[in-house]
Amino acid sequence: MLFNTSYTDKEITKQINNLVGKPFSFIKAIKLKGIGSKRMIIDEVSPNLHTIVNLVNDINYGSIELRPKGILIHIGKGLQRFAWVIPYYKLVIYKTNGASIHADGKFIHFRKNKTFKENKQFFKKLLDQKINFDSQFSTIPYNE
Question: For the whole prediction, is pTM greater than 0.85?
Answer without folding.
Answer: yes
